[in-house]
Amino acid sequence: MKTVAVIGGGASGMLAALTAAEDKTQRVLLLERQQRLGRKLLATGNGRCNLTNTGASLENYHGEDAAFARPALEAFPPAAALAFFRGLGLLTAEEYGGRVYPLSNSANSVLDVLRLALDAAGVEQRCGESVRALRRNDKGFTLVTDGGELGADRVIVACGGCAGASLGGVKDGYELLRPLGHRRTALHPALVQLTTAPDYPRALKGVRVQCSLRLMRGGEALAESRGELQFTERGVSGPAVFDLSRTAATEGGALSLHAALLPLGEEELLGLLRARREAQGTLAASELLTGMLHNRLGRMLVKYAGLGAATPLSELTEKELRRVAAACRDFTLPVTGTEGFDHAQVTAGGLRTAEFDPETLESRLVPGLFVCGELLDIDGDCGGYNLQWAWASGRLAGRLGT
Ligand SMILES: Cc1cc2nc3c(=O)[nH]c(=O)nc-3n(C[C@H](O)[C@H](O)[C@H](O)COP(=O)(O)OP(=O)(O)OC[C@H]3O[C@@H](n4cnc5c(N)ncnc54)[C@H](O)[C@@H]3O)c2cc1C
User: Is residue 344 part of a domain?
Assistant: First the structure.
C-alpha cells in the first residue's frame, strides 16, 4: 500500500488528507507539530470561523501571479466548500458581505466535523510530531520527524505561513522545501493593524467608526477601502484597515491614511455645523460634533482642527467650521508601519508559484511533492477568502494529480 504523508494539520492539510483518503488504496498519514490539529482554525473569525465567502473570486487573491489560484478555486468554489462541509454535518449561516460562519457561531464546530471525518476516513494522525527535514529517496521521500524517520511515496506540504505566530505560524514549510530547490518571495504580514504616529490613536483606543479609507504615498492613492476602523493602542485596526494592510506592508515610502469619518458631502456637513452653532450657541466647541460621531472622536476632531475646546459655539467663525468639516472628511494619520507576524492573520508572499503546476499543485522540480494553503505565494482579502483558499488548494493537492 502506498503512503501519502501530509505535513501540517491545519485547514489545508486536513482537507488534503481527507481528499487523499478517498482513495482507499493508499494509507494517509497526517503529521502536526502542535499538540492538536487546527489550532489556528479555532482562532479564526474571533473564534467564530469565517470559513468562506460566497462572493470569492480571483480578484480577492494576491501574489506575484494571483491567477495561479484559479484552477483550485474553480474546482472547489465556495458553493462546493459549503456542500462539502454540509456533507460533514456542519450547518452554516451567511452574513453581510457573503461571509459564512458556522450556525453555532463556534469555530470548534468546523474543527470537530473535520476531526470526525478524518477519523472516519482512517487518516492516521500524529500530533506533537514536527517534521524537521524532507528528503528525496529512490522510492519516494524520507521524512525526518521528532520521532525518527519515516518513508512516504508522496508528500503534501501544508505547513501554513508565519502569520499568527502565537497560534503556531512558523517558517518550517519554506525551510523544508529549500533543500529540494524551492524558493520563496519576500514575506510580509498582511490583514494586520497599521501603526500610526502616536498623536491620536491612544486617546481614541477602542473607538470604532464606519468610514472610507485611502492609503496615500504623497499625492498618490495606493489603495482604498470602506468599513469599520478601530483605534488601538498603537494605531488602527478593523476590516477596512486590514484591506489596506497588504499594500501598506509591501509598498515603501512615507505613507498616510486618510479617513472620511462621516458619509456626508462638504456642504451638507457644513449646513449641520452651522445649524448647531445657531441653535446651541452657548455650548462649548468640544460639543460641536456630539451626536454625529463617537463623543471621544468628535472632541478629538475639534482639537485636530485647531479649535479651542471651551470656545462657545456662537463664537466659531465660518473658517473654523470649514476646518472641522474638512477634518471629518479627511482625518489624516501618518503611517509608521504595520504590526508584525504575531498580529497578522495571513502571510503575503510565500513559495514561488511558478515552481508548481496550478492544475495539480505538484512541484515542477520534485515529482510526487505537492503543496497547498498559505505556504504558497497566494493570500486573500479579509472576509473568509483565506480559508476558502486553504480548502480549495487542500482539496486539489489531496487529489495528488489524478
Ligand atoms: C487570528 C487569525 C484569524 C483568522 N481569521 C480568519 C477568518 O475568519 N477567515 C479566513 O478565511 N481566514 C482567517 N485567517 C487566516 C487562516 O486561518 C489561514 O489563512 C489558514 O489557516 C491557512 O491554512 P493552512 O492550512 O495553509 O495553514 P495553517 O492553518 O496555519 O496550518 C498549518 C499547520 O502546519 C503545522 N506545521 C507547521 N510546520 C510543521 C512541521 N514542521 N511539522 C508538522 N506540522 C507543521 C502548523 O502547526 C499548523 O497547524 C485567520 C488567521 C489568524 C491568525
Answer: no
Cα of 303 vs centre of ligand 1, distance in Å, is 43
Pure H helices in 164-294: 172-177, 239-250, 266-279
325 grid coordinates: 468639516
pLDDT in tens, 69-97: 999 999 999 999 999 999 999 999 999 99
The domain boundary, picked from 317, 339, 361, lies at: 339
Q: How far apart are alpha carbons 118 and 21 in whole angstroms?
A: 8
Measured by CA distance, the residue closest to atom 8 of ligand 1 is 45
Looking at the fold, whether 384 and 318 belong to one and the same domain comes out as no
Closest CA relative to residue 309, chosen from 294, 292, 289, 327: 289
Percent of the chain scoring above 90 in pLDDT: 96
Find the CATH number of the domain harbouring 143. Answer: 3.50.50.60
Q: pTM of the full predicted structure?
A: 0.95
**45 Cα: distance to centroid of ligand 1 (angstroms):** 12
Distance 9 CA to ligand 1 centre (A): 9
Q: Do residue 313 and residue 265 come from a single domain?
A: yes
Ligand 1 binding pocket includes 10 (Cβ within 6 Å): yes
β-partners of residue 195 are 235, 337
What residue numbers bound the domain in which 296 lies? Answer: 193-339
Ligand 1: centre distance to CA 224 (Å) = 27
Q: Are residues 313 and 168 in the same domain?
A: no
CB 193 near ligand 1, within 6 Å: no
Q: 221 and 255: one domain?
A: yes
Same domain? 176 vs 207: no
